[in-house]
């Protein structure tokens, strides 16, 4: 199974066409969105790239391949207006080799996680990383729209053998073999 992870779109359509192309090119089975779909803290609403309807239609186009987690910036109105399921706090994807827990990161993260020998994927921080801490693996794809700390926009691919974070220019940012 090949999974693509993105996070923190915040209503910005920039890079979503690239994600769609990469999803098809890499023959991914699922698109996992780790929250903060639409809301952009108000300041980006004047940005020409802020387009909630475009983002909603983009996500709807993946409906049968989409796993979507609610982020701290996603309102109940956002959930109701979406024609796809949005999972509230925590979910689990079982692959052939691994169980991967999915969340946004504002509740469960490397500082607040009790399950040992697990993989937790979350967004929220807008910073890409793969960290092994004791028996757990923590994965963050960064942000596809609003990266922080001088990072480019990033996404993550899981292919049963490894996790790989890429930027939108096809550079490998980090890789972790399982």
Features:
6-stranded mixed beta sheet; Purple Acid Phosphatase, chain A, domain 2; alpha/beta; 5-stranded mixed beta sheet; globular; 11 strands; 178 residues; single chain
Descriptive notes:
The chain has 178 residues and is an alpha/beta fold. It has a single domain (3-177), classed as 4-Layer Sandwich (Purple Acid Phosphatase, chain A, domain 2). It contains 3 helices and 11 strands. It has helices spanning 16-25, 52-60, 76-81, and strands spanning 3-6, 30-33, 66-68, 90-94, 99-103, 119-121, 128-133, 136-141, 154-158, 162-167, 172-177. It has a 6-stranded mixed beta sheet, with no helix packed on it. A hairpin with a 2-residue loop joins strand 7 (128-133) and strand 8. The protein is globular, with a radius of gyration of 15 Å.
Q: CA-to-CA gap between the ends?
A: 14 Å
Q: Order of SSEs, N→C? A: EHEHEHEEEEEEEE
Structural class: alpha/beta
Judging by the overall fold, what is the CATH architecture? 4-Layer Sandwich
Domains counted in the coordinates: how many?
1
Report the strand count. 11
Assigned CATH superfamily: Metallo-dependent phosphatases
Quick structural overview:
By secondary structure, the protein is α/β, with parallel strands linked by helices. The chain has helices at 16-25, 52-60, 76-81, and strands spanning 3-6, 30-33, 66-68, 90-94, 99-103, 119-121, 128-133, 136-141, 154-158, 162-167, 172-177.
């Amino acid at each position: 199974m090949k999974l693509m992870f993105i996070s923190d779109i915040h209503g910005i359509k920039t890079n979503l066409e690239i994600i769609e192309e990469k999803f098809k090119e890499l023959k991914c089975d699922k698109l996992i969105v780790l929250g903060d779909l639409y809301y952009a803290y108000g300041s980006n609403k004047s940005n020409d790239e802020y387009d909630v309807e475009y983002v909603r239609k983009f996500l709807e186009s993946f409906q049968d391949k989409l796993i979507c987690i609610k982020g701290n910036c996603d309102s109940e109105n956002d959930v109701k207006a979406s024609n796809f399921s949005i999972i509230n706090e925590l979910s689990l994807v079982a692959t052939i080799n691994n169980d991967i827990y999915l969340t946004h990161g504002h509740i469960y993260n490397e500082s607040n996680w009790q399950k040992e020998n697990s993989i937790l994927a979350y967004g929220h921080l807008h910073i890409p990383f793969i960290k092994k801490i004791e028996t757990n693996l923590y994965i963050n794809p960064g942000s596809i729209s609003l990266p922080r700390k001088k990072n480019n926009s990033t996404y993550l691919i899981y292919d049963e053998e490894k996790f790989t974070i890429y930027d939108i220019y096809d550079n490998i940012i980090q890789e972790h073999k399982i």
